[in-house]
Amino acid sequence: MATITTEFGKLSSKGQRAVYLRVRDKKTEKRIATGVKVDESEISPRTKKIKNFEKAQTVEKLRMELMYKMTSIAPEINYSANMDAARIVSTLIMQEKTESLDFFTFAEDWISKNSLKSTKNYKCTLSCSHQLCLS
């Protein structure tokens, strides 16, 4: 069975380290960036764990979510000969993307990121469409 552990990246010029989740299966491994950065003072020198509670909780939540998703594909991992860490990660990421795919969420996000003159028209059309779908 694959394991997921926390790992720290190289020390940057700002004195911070990026936090990664390392997926390891058999002899292969793949790192996933968590987006969390910690200062050198926020890492316990003896235990190599994050001292800052919020950051540690964020990383642990991500790790637990991946572990939960990995249990759903466990039979595939155990019985597939060509399943390595990179394939496990890509399967987990694809599973995450398909679960959160919603047209209205995507459209609202797209409208908020674009600065077009017709943004107001798009918002109105989206709102009317959403109302029709709900009724």
Task: Write up this protein.
The protein is α+β, with helices and mostly antiparallel strands and 135 residues long. Helices cover 50% and strands 23% of the residues. It has helices at residues 53-72, 74-79, 85-99, 103-113, 119-134; strands spanning 3-11, 16-25, 28-39. A three-stranded antiparallel sheet has the order 1-2-3. The chain starts with a strand and ends with a helix. The mean pLDDT is 80.
Keywords summarizing the entry:
three-stranded antiparallel β-sheet, 3 strands, extended
Q: What is the CA-atom radius of gyration, in angstroms?
A: 20 Å
Unreliably modeled segments: none
Note the run of SSEs as H and E: EEEHHHHH
- Through-space gap between termini: 46 Å
Structural class: alpha+beta
What helical percentage do the residues reach?
40-55%
Strands, total number: 3
Number of helical stretches of at least 4 residues = 5
The main sheet comes to: 3 strands, antiparallel
Strand order of the largest sheet: 1-2-3
- Which percent range describes the beta-strand content? 15-25%
Shape: extended
Mean pLDDT: 80
Report a brief summary of the structure.
The chain has 135 residues and is an alpha+beta fold. The protein is built from 5 helices and 3 strands; from the N terminus they run E-E-E-H-H-H-H-H.
Helix-strand layout with pairing:
Blueprint: E1 3-11, E2 16-25, E3 28-39, H1 53-72, H2 74-79, H3 85-99, H4 103-113, H5 119-134
Antiparallel strand pairs: 1-2, 2-3
Helix pairs in contact: 4-5
